[in-house]
# Entry
Amino acid sequence: MNFLFAPFTDNEFLRLSLVATCIVAVTCAIAGAFVVLRGLAFVGDALAHGVVPGVAVAMLAGFSGVLGAAVGAAVMMGGVGLVNRRYRLSSDTSIGLLFVGMLALGVIIQSRSSTFAGDLTKVLFGEVLGVAWSDIAWQTVAFGVVAGTAWVCRRPFLLLSFDEGLAETSGFPVRRYANIMLAMVAVTVVASFQTVGTLLVLGMLVAPAATGALFGRRISTVIAIAAVVGVASSYVGLLVSYHADLAAGASIVLVAVVVFALCATSVELRRWWEHRQDIHHHHDHPHFHEHVHH
Amino acid sequence: MSTTDPQPVISAAGLAVGYGHRPVVDGLGFALYPGQLLVLIGTNGSGKSTLLKTLAGLLDPQGGEVSVLGERPGTQPSRVAYLPQHPVSSHTLPLRVEDVVTMGRFARHGLFGRLGAEDRSAVGDAMRRTGASDYAHRPLRDLSGGQQQRAHLAQVLSRQADVLLLDEPTAGLDVAGRRLVADLVQEERSRGVTVVMATHELSDADNADAAILLAQRVVAQGVPSEVLTDASLREVFGFTQPH
# Structure
């Protein structure tokens, strides 16, 4: 059993990583539940890549990467809204345009750096093993903001996930609350990219929440299951990466996706088994079914 | 369409409705009083849903005048309930029917108001009346189209509104379901609720106070027997009703 705990008791950097990824997992569970229910995965991905140029400028200019990421996310959100309204393009086209544009801009800015490859890798894949207490403090603040926003706006967010017309006619303006939801996802991305990176943060947003949506019947249950899956994936992913010498951020996200795949398969198997039982029951009791149908 | 009541619940004069700057229908004029039913009939794309969305406040009027409960549409969310055509999310939403119906009460409480015994009673009553109480604890996505539509109807009824705007409420329902909708509409009208309903069922106009036949223009409007004539039906649909 020692191999399960020793890496964390023996290494302070790994303990810090575990704390950071657990905070990120719970934050992503809250935002991710609404991303999955409202179908915002592509926007989430775009926001994650939208932060890249902001972080690149911050690195070159020597100020906070979190601040740069926040500016990048704000530009991305504003840009998507503008292209949607002005040019009447479908939202996936406008999101896709800004997504690749911002990523390309980020890589170009980063290429001015003397340590281009190393810095870009940090941004895209995170630096989970280099977490400091100051990062954890930021992530805790972000968790508070996301949890508070989700609690206050739980009714309009639920209505938006069901039907925009219902939200609007219930007195919750769609544009206002859709923007607040996007801002909540942006805060989550900005708080998470340092640990799992901008390429993989979508995995933490979507995979645990999708697992939650397989089993949860209320938004609170979806979030709770997503949080448990996210925290467990963080622990198992860090452990696997430590013992097998694998990339930590990618290991965490891969575990979360594998958990979803296993859960989805178990749901399918259960459905198949129930269907099979129904057929057997029908063969054994044909008269009963005849009676029911009549 | 007039009674002795001087204040119509819904009134429109020279109303033009549409998307963006493109009108779909114009020249709409009517006045509805408490307990009255207006039925909108027409082909797909004729403007039925566009008019309902305008009355719900989801689309701005393109011209003319319109008021709902004496004010601009969309300004009294707790008194007007709108049933959209089948929401796409119904196929993916993991939430239980009871919770989906409870969403109908959010308009009365805003962000922070607490849901209480009165709300639970309204939700339970709406689910019982529509038959949705039989699957109250099942996820919406696991239900058939007809069962989902009953849940959506329960959500609208739970709002206990003064105005119901129903966009094809019988879509996906079997004969019993269509009968249920007709009975529910009658029950709501008997307690003074004003109903505007878009439908493809000509029989829905049987008990209506007024009907509007649309084909991207107003083909006919007024008392149903004068609107749904052989000539007007042939003009819009290419066939007439069996007599």
Q: What stands out?
A: Chain A has one domain: 2-293. Residues 2-293 of chain A form a domain with the ABC transporter involved in vitamin B12 uptake, BtuC fold (CATH 1.10.3470.10).
